[in-house]
Specification:
By secondary structure, the protein is an alpha/beta fold. The protein has a single domain, classed as Metallo-dependent phosphatases (Purple Acid Phosphatase, chain A, domain 2), CATH 3.60.21. It is about 35% helix and about 25% strand. It contains 8 helices and 11 strands. Helix 1 packs parallel to helix 2. The longest helix has 19 residues. The chain is globular. It starts with a strand and ends with a strand. The mean pLDDT is about 100. The structure holds ligand LP5 and manganese (II) ion (MN).
Length: about 250
């Protein structure tokens, strides 16, 4: 099985979601199934990530240990950056025993072709966000941020989260969704592969007709303290699974 998840937004303030995540990992990394399964985390695993030197945080340790144990049991785990945790780096990847993926990423299986993304890059109607995105993905900006003391980085991240919530309350759902034309171009560019992404927190299966070809776009759900969700590919079809605490 291949499992796709995104937008878990894990932090010390989400003990419920962390429990759901750990129970999920334990289940899919059981010794009898681990080597037949793989996991793709499509961004925003963490509520925010301010640098790999924040791995000593007990909550981060708990998550990293759970991922590392699943990896050691044989689960192939992959992670893509989201708009909140794009500073996750190779030190984190090594500690968690996972592979960092570029966004977008083409996943070819013997049965089917997928293209995976976080989804935010296609939200081009949200110009304020695209400007913010370009600025914060700039390596010089990131280097200048990463040399600040950890406490200051946490304060900036907290401030940015508040600004984001305030900015979103002024934007329409349409404006914050993927731009239809950009999405069709993207599907064309990636050979009409089935597109799986998160970010918008609007779980759905969309049918696109691009150049006369039917293409599916699956949007993953965000997680809450009581409920997680995974999309599962069994070699024939995609199915949504609701996840609860064990
Ligand atoms: O995340 P979500 O779902 O709430 O909203 C996103 C967009 N918002 C963001 C911001 C993040 O939530 C907070 C990021 C924390 C990162 C921690 C590391 C910090 C590293 C910084 C430096 C290298 O991504 C939101 C979209 C929404 O998705 C839907 O697509 O609308 O976009 C915004 O809210 C952006 C605002 O419109 C503009 C923000 C202006 C803030 C300018 C402050 C600049 C000061 C920078 C100081 C470092
Ligand atoms: Mn996101």
């Amino acid at each position: 099985m291949i499992y796709f998840i995104s937008d878990l937004h894990l932090s010390p303030r989400t003990p419920g979601a962390i429990c759901i995540f750990k129970a999920f990992l334990e289940r899919i990394a059981r010794p009898d199934v681990a080597r037949n399964n793989s996991l793709y985390i499509l961004g925003d695993c963490f509520e925010t990530w301010v640098g790999d030197d924040d791995m000593d945080d007990p909550c981060h340790q708990e998550i990293i240990t759970a991922l590392a144990q699943a990896g050691a049991a044989g689960l192939a785990t992959h992670l893509m950056h989201g708009n909140r945790d794009f500073l996750l780096g190779q030190d984190f990847a090594r500690a968690a025993g996972l592979t960092l993926l570029p966004d977008p990423y083409v996943l070819s299986t013997p049965e089917w072709q997928f293209v995976l993304a976080h989804g935010d890059a296609l939200c081009t109607d949200d110009q304020a966000y695209q400007q913010f995105r370009a600025q914060t993905r700039n390596p010089d900006w990131q280097a200048a941020f990463l040399v600040k003391p950890l406490a200051e980085r946490h304060a900036i991240a907290e401030h940015l989260r508040q600004q984001s919530e305030a900015a979103k309350s002024e934007k329409s759902a349409y404006q914050m969704d993927l731009n239809p034309g950009e999405t069709d171009d993207f599907l064309r560019q990636y050979g009409y592969a089935t597109f799986i992404h998160g970010h918008t927190h609007q779980p759905a299966r969309h049918d696109h007709i691009v150049d006369g070809i039917h293409v599916e776009r699956w949007v993953l759900a965000d997680w809450s303290e009581h409920r997680g969700e995974a999309l599962c590919w069994d070699g024939e079809q995609l199915l949504r699974e609701t996840l609860h605490q064990s």
